[in-house]
Amino acid sequence: TREYKLVPFEEKQSGRYVLVVSDASTSGTYFTCAEFYLFNDMRSYLTPKLLPLVEADYSASTDAAKVGYYNPTALNTFISSMTGIVESASSTNSELCDAYNNFASGLLSCLNMPEAGKVYRIVNCFPGYYTNQSVEKAMYANGTTPYWANDATDNLAYCWAVAPMGDGTYSIRNLNNCQYIQATNAMGASATGLNLVWLAAGQFNIKKGNESAFHTNGHDGGAGVSGNIVTWNGGANSASSWRFEEMTAGAADLVKAELSALVSDNASNHAAVPALGQYTDAAYTALTQAQAAYNASSKTADDMFTAQMAVSEFNQPYNRSLPVFTINGTIAYAAGKAI
Q: Residue 197: in which H helix or E strand, if any?
């Protein structure tokens, strides 16, 4: 059991106290020098602190659609609520305290965040890249590892579905390999919750648990061309800051084009008993069915992943007649007609 007592720090200086904590379980007594102010009227103390917050100009950080900006409708509702508490003569001390203590978290709740079903490019916010190279850098999947290089809008490896996990974290899944980021140097089939820590308008740190932020390794002050992702903390406009650029429609078109090309290129390259290099009729039929389903879909991120998985399945070696050989007794396939 602990007992707490406030003892005046100096008899003639009201408001300054020593906090005395007595712990019966350890027979210990601890002293903490601090300033504790006892108010009968919190309004006179909190109003000057709350007014600058509710009267601040948030317009530069407000946008109806951009991720990391305040949604104007949500912001207006929140500010109106806070203003009402500050200006109302009937607001209790508890209401004023709650308004002040929860103001920062309330503002964060007004931000536009990545949404399930949408696709984004993850672009680094370090201005040195554009200053030195006249290009922006973005995250992409290099095989099964996150990397960074010149931003690209025509490559599915740069397309990411970012979705809330329900616990305040977000999963980040690549549209090209259909795998989730699990760490700065790893991707896999299972979703991993990552923290998106807001820094400034449109900018976030991306963190796994208590680790440092995702960072473009080898940025070289903006002269770096490409590289891997490491952990290194940094604020807004640093190589550890990222923005989420929606490109759901663009990604949908890329998936559609890939499906169309694959169906067209193999229209005569399949058979019930395929010759060398041909696909099976069953594999080609499944691909055309996937194409039809995708074209009829709403083309959400999940629809795109379903289509991409169909493409991956079509390209499996067991769906195609390929030369077969063994390496140390293990069956392997050659990708072409000659080995």
A: strand 195-200
Identify whether the C-beta of residue 221 lies closer than 8 Å to the C-beta of residue 132.
yes
Q: Please state, in angstroms and as integers, the Cα–Cα distance from residue 31 to each residue in 23, 28, 60, 159, following that order.
A: 11, 10, 46, 55
CB atoms inside a 10 Å sphere around CB 153: 13
| Distance separating alpha carbons of residues 319 and 279, to the nearest angstrom | 6
Closest by alpha carbon to 156, among 257, 225, 265, 224? 257
Considering only 12-26, 50-64, 261-275, which range has the smallest mean pLDDT? 12-26
Both tokens assigned to 143 = 């095989």
| CB neighbours of residue 8 within 10 Å | 12
Place of tokens 């996990």: 165
The amino acid that residue 315 corresponds to is N
Average pLDDT, the chain: 90
CA 40 to chain centre: 44
**In the Cβ-directed half-sphere of 49, how many Cα atoms lie within 13 Å?**
14
Phi, psi of 326 (to 5 degrees): -120, 145
Q: 198 by DSSP, 3-state: which?
A: strand
Cβ contact 123:305 at 8 Å: no
Q: Find out whether 319 and 283 touch, Cβ atoms under 8 Å.
A: yes
Number of alpha carbons in the 13 Å side-chain half-sphere of residue 216: 30
pTM score, whole prediction: 0.84
Q: Is 73 helix (H, G, I), strand (E, B) or coil?
A: helix
**Which helix (DSSP H) or strand (DSSP E) does residue 20 occupy?**
strand 16-23
> Residues in the chain, how many?
339
Structure tokens at 162: 């970012």
Cα–Cα nearest to 295, from 269, 258, 267, 266:
258
pLDDT of 14 strictly over 60: no
Using alpha carbons, select from 295, 290, 305, 310 the residue that is nearest to residue 176.
305
